[in-house]
C-alpha cells in the first residue's frame, strides 16, 4: 500500500512538472536561473507500526488524529503466559539456596582435608584415605561452581523473560500523529501493521526537476514554497537530498527538501509551487567541486563573483596574433561547463570508476549512456564559472581520476563580425584560467602541462 502511494505521488509530480517547466512564476526572483516547479508536501516520515511479536491485542491506547511522542505506548498484546514465565524466572534467579549449600560443602571438605593431612604426616591414616578426602574436596568445589553457573543462567533467563513481556507493548517510533488504525482490541496480529504514524515536523517537499538543471542545485540550498491553500504564507524549505540518478524515461531527477512545520500549521498532502533561491552559499559549494557540504567553504576574505551567462570575449591582454590564423566562423557563447569522466566502454569500468568516487566520499554524480549507446560517461558537475570547473578538475585529478571538460554553448549574435572561432577563444580562456590558478597556487607545472591536464571537448550546440 505504501509503495503504491509513493508511485502515485511520483507520477503526479512528473505530470505537474511537464506542464510547468516552460517559464518562471510570479514569486520566483528574476535572478533565479530555475523556473517554478509544482511540488507536493508530504509527511516527513510515514511509518506503519507493526508488532514485534504475534498475539492477541489486549488494548489500543490511541486513535486516529492523536498526537504521540517518541517512546509513547501505542498498543499492548495479551501477555498472561509471558507474565507467568517472568515470575518463574524471577523466583529462580533470586534463589541462592543451592549456591550456599554447595559453598558450605566445599568449605567443610577443605577443613577436613587439612586436619587429615596432619594425621597422615604422623602415619595415623593411610594414603588411600588421603586420596579419598582430596577427591571429595575437589568434587565439592566443582558442585559449588556448577551452582554459581546455574544461578547466572537463571539471571539471564529472567532478563530474557523481561524482554519477551516488553515486546508485547508497542511504542511510537517517532513524534507524530496517528493517521490510520488497522486493528482493534481482541484481534490477532502477526505480520500486519496496527497503526500508521506520520511525522509532521519537519515536512518533506518532493519536486521533480528536469535533467537540464542537473548540477545547479546543492544540498543545503533554500527554496520558497507556496502551499496551494491561500491562507498560508510562502514558506522556506531547504534541500535535504538530491537523487544521484536521472530517470532516463522522463529525463528528470527527484529533489527532496525539508520544510519546518512548528505547531503543525501546514497540512501534509497539499500541492504547492516551489522556486529555488540563489545565494552565496551555493557558489561556495560550487567552487569546491560539488563535494559534500562537510568540505571546506570560502573564507570571508575570498572574492566571490556573480555567476552570469555572458558571451565569451577576447581579454584585452591577448594579442591578435593568437587568433589571426583562425577560421572566420560564428562563435557560440559558453553557457556553462560540464565536468565528465573519460569514455567508459564496459559496465565493469563504470562500476570501478563509481566505486572509487564513493570511496573518496564523492556522491554527486550520475551515469549516462554515450557514444550512441556503445559506452558510458560519468557526469561530475555543471559549472557556470570556469575557475570553479577547473578547481573541480584539479581536485579530481589529484585523487587520480581521468576527467574531461566540455563547454556547453548557445548562439552569440554579436560574435560573427569579430572573425574568430569559438574553439580558439575557449582554449585561450582555459589557458588563462589555468595560469591564474597556477600562479595563485605557486605551481608553474600546471601551465607547462596544461595540454595534458584535461581534455577539452568541443561539441555543436
From TrEMBL:
Molecular function as annotated in GO: efflux transmembrane transporter activity
Signal sequence interval, chain numbering: 1-24
GO cellular component, one term: efflux pump complex
InterPro entries per the UniProt record, alphabetical: Beta-barrel_RND_2 (IPR058792), RND_pump_MFP (IPR006143)
Record key words, sorted: Signal
CusB-like beta-barrel domain mapped to chain residues: 207-277
Family to which the UniProt record says this protein belongs: Belongs to the membrane fusion protein (MFP) (TC 8.A.1) family.
Name of this protein: Efflux RND transporter periplasmic adaptor subunit
Species of origin: Thalassomonas viridans
Amino acid at each position: 500500500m505504501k509503495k503504491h502511494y509513493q508511485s502515485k505521488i511520483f507520477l503526479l509530480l512528473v505530470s505537474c512538472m511537464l506542464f510547468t517547466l516552460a517559464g518562471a512564476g510570479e514569486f520566483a526572483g528574476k535572478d533565479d536561473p530555475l523556473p517554478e516547479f509544482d511540488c507536493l508536501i508530504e509527511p516527513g516520515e510515514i511509518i506503519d507500526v507493526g508488532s514485534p511479536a504475534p498475539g492477541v491485542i489486549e488494548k489500543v491506547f490511541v486513535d486516529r488524529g492523536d498526537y504521540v511522542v517518541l517512546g509513547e505506548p501505542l498498543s499492548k498484546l495479551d501477555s498472561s503466559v509471558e507474565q507467568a514465565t517472568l515470575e518463574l524466572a524471577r523466583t529462580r534467579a533470586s534463589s541462592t539456596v543451592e549456591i550456599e549449600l554447595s559453598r558450605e560443602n566445599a568449605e567443610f571438605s577443605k577443613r577436613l582435608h587439612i586436619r587429615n593431612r596432619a594425621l597422615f604426616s604422623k602415619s595415623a591414616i593411610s594414603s588411600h584415605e588421603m586420596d579419598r578426602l582430596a577427591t571429595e574436596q575437589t568434587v565439592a568445589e566443582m558442585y559449588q561452581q556448577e551452582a554459581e553457573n546455574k544461578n547466572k543462567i537463571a539471571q539471564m533467563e529472567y532478563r530474557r523473560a523481561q524482554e519477551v513481556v516488553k515486546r508485547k507493548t508497542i511504542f511510537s517510533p517517532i513524534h507524530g500523529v496517528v493517521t490510520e488504525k488497522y486493528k482493534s482490541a481482541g484481534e490477532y496480529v502477526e505480520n500486519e501493521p496496527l497503526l500508521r504514524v506520520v511525522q509532521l515536523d519537519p515536512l518533506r517537499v518532493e519536486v521533480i526537476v528536469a535533467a537540464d538543471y542537473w548540477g545547479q542545485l546543492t544540498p543545503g540550498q533554500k527554496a520558497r514554497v507556496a502551499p496551494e491553500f491561500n491562507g498560508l504564507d510562502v514558506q522556506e524549505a531547504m534541500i535535504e537530498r538530491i537523487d544521484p540518478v536521472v530517470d532516463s524515461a522522463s529525463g528528470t531527477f527527484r529533489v527532496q527538501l525539508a520544510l519546518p512545520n512548528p505547531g503543525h500549521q501546514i497540512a501534509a498532502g497539499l500541492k504547492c509551487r516551489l522556486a529555488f533561491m540563489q545565494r552565496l552559499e551555493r557558489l561556495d559549494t560550487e567552487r569546491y567541486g560539488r563535494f559534500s557540504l562537510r568540505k571546506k567553504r570560502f573564507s570571508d576574505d575570498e572574492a566571490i563573483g556573480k555567476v552570469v551567462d555572458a558571451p565569451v570575449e577576447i581579454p584585452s591582454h591577448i594579442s591578435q596574433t593568437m587568433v589571426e590564423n583562425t577560421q572566420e566562423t560564428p562563435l557560440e557563447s559558453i553557457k556553462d561547463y560540464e565536468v565528465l569522466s573519460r569514455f567508459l566502454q564496459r559496465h565493469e569500468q563504470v562500476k570501478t570508476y563509481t566505486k572509487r568516487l564513493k570511496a573518496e566520499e564523492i556522491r554527486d554524480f550520475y551515469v549516462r549512456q554515450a557514444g550512441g549507446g556503445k559506452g558510458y560517461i560519468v557526469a561530475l558537475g555543471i559549472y557556470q564559472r570556469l575557475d570553479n570547473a577547473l578547481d573541480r578538475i584539479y581536485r579530481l585529478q589529484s585523487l587520480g581520476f581521468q576527467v574531461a571538460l566540455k563547454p556547453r554553448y548557445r548562439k552569440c549574435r554579436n560574435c560573427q563580425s569579430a572573425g574568430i572561432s569559438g574553439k580558439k577563444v575557449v582554449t585561450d580562456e582555459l589557458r588563462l584560467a589555468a595560469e591564474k590558478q597556477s600562479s595563485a597556487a605557486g605551481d608553474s607545472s600546471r601551465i607547462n602541462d596544461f595540454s595534458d591536464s584535461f581534455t577539452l571537448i568541443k561539441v555543436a550546440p
